Amino acid sequence: MQVDEDKLAAYFADEPSDAPFSHLDRTRLPRHVSIIMDGNGRWAQAQGLSRSEGHKAGIVALREIITASVRLGIDVLSAYAFSTENWNRPAHEVNVLMHLFAKTFIDELPLLKRENVRVVFLGDIEALPKKTREVFEYGVEACKDHTGMVLALAVNYGARAELTRACRLLAQDVAAGRVDPAAIDERAISSRLYTAGLPDPELVIRTSGELRLSNYLLWQVAYAEFYVTDTYWPDFNRWDYVRALLSFEGRDRRFGGLSKK
Ligand code: IPE
Ligand code: IPE
Ligand code: MG
User: Fold this and answer.
1) What residues are labeled active site?
2) Amino acid 4: pLDDT
3) What is the pTM of this model?
4) CB of 97 closer than 6 A to ligand 1?
5) Domain extent listing, the chain
6) How far is the CA of 153 from the centre of ligand 2 (A)?
7) Ligand 2 test: best mutation among 65, 208, 210, most atoms within 8 Å of CB?
């Protein structure tokens, strides 16, 4: 893979400070943070810009949170980029997003390489436009030996579609005699989800104030902590991230038991 040295230098120069992180207790951080990146359109509207500009600004925010997560030693960062329901948007917006995803992924490969980030996709990538799919496959391959943080990008992802797919896979295994129905346990389902092998999210952040999951990771967030901020995704920065993480660190996670405090 060719690394663009000029671009690398620019990333170093632009690197925001790590100062906000001094507020955190590193021993209490979540292993897996998941973000519902919402509010690009409203951000753009508020600035008198097109929705496409909002999506572009959203990419900048994601880059900052990726590098912040790497600095903090987060094991897995997942981000909801395009839902199975987002096909309901006007064709122009869908096209802009698909193009932006492909272009950004290529542009950011040097960053992912420098930060040793491995990328996985959650969702039905096969159904994406050919060029976007090919770029994703190329990028995943280029990062596959990276040993640092896992970046899980949910694209054409829907939790109901994911669970339906898991049921289908399980049924095929039962029909073929590979799985005994009596032996089906939670692990049998988890291992057939797109997130197989990843820890469940411990913290889910949603930007732009909406109090819903929008068909995101229904199984995996069974015991996640939620943090919702009114900030639109393009405005979400390291300080907002630290606020969310501080909120998480202050939670009493009882898992149905009694408080240890
Ligand atoms: C999130 O921003 C990005 C995607 C869903 C692709 P939106 O595009 O949903 O922004 P709002 O919610 O309309 O402001
Ligand atoms: C959720 O945002 C999906 C993504 C962030 C990719 P939406 O903007 O699509 O969700 P709704 O329509 O507000 O539920
Ligand atoms: Mg939205």
Assistant:
1) 38, 86
2) 67
3) 0.94
4) yes
5) 29-158+201-246
6) 14
7) 210
- If one residue of 211, 214, 232 were mutated to test the ligand 2 pocket, choosing by the most ligand atoms within 8 A of its CB, it would be 214
105 lines ligand 2 (CB under 6 A): no
Report the pLDDT value the prediction gives residue 1, as an integer from 0 to 100.
47
Closest protein CA for atom 12 of ligand 2:
214
What is the C-alpha to C-alpha distance for residues 67 and 98, in angstroms, rounded to an integer? 23
pLDDT tens digits, one per residue of 109-140? 999 999 999 999 999 999 999 999 999 999 99
Closest ligand 1 atom, CA of 39? 14
Can you give the pLDDT at residue 122? Answer: 98
Average pLDDT, the chain: 95
Q: Which fold has domain 29-158+201-246?
A: Undecaprenyl pyrophosphate synthetase (3.40.1180)
Please report which helix (H) or strand (E) contains residue 69, including its range.
Answer: helix 51-72
Rounded Cα distance, 128 and 156, in Å: 8
The token pair that represents 5 in the structure block: 């040295």
Which residues in the chain land under pLDDT 70? Answer: 1-15
pLDDT digits 0-9 by tens, 63-113: 999 999 999 999 999 999 999 999 999 999 999 999 999 999 999 999 999
> How far is Cα 2 from Cα 194, in angstroms, rounded to an integer?
29
Strands 150-157 and 76-83: parallel
Q: Cβ-count burial of 256 within 10 angstroms (0-12 exposed, 13-18 middle, 19+ buried)?
A: exposed
> What are the tokens at 98?
């698909």
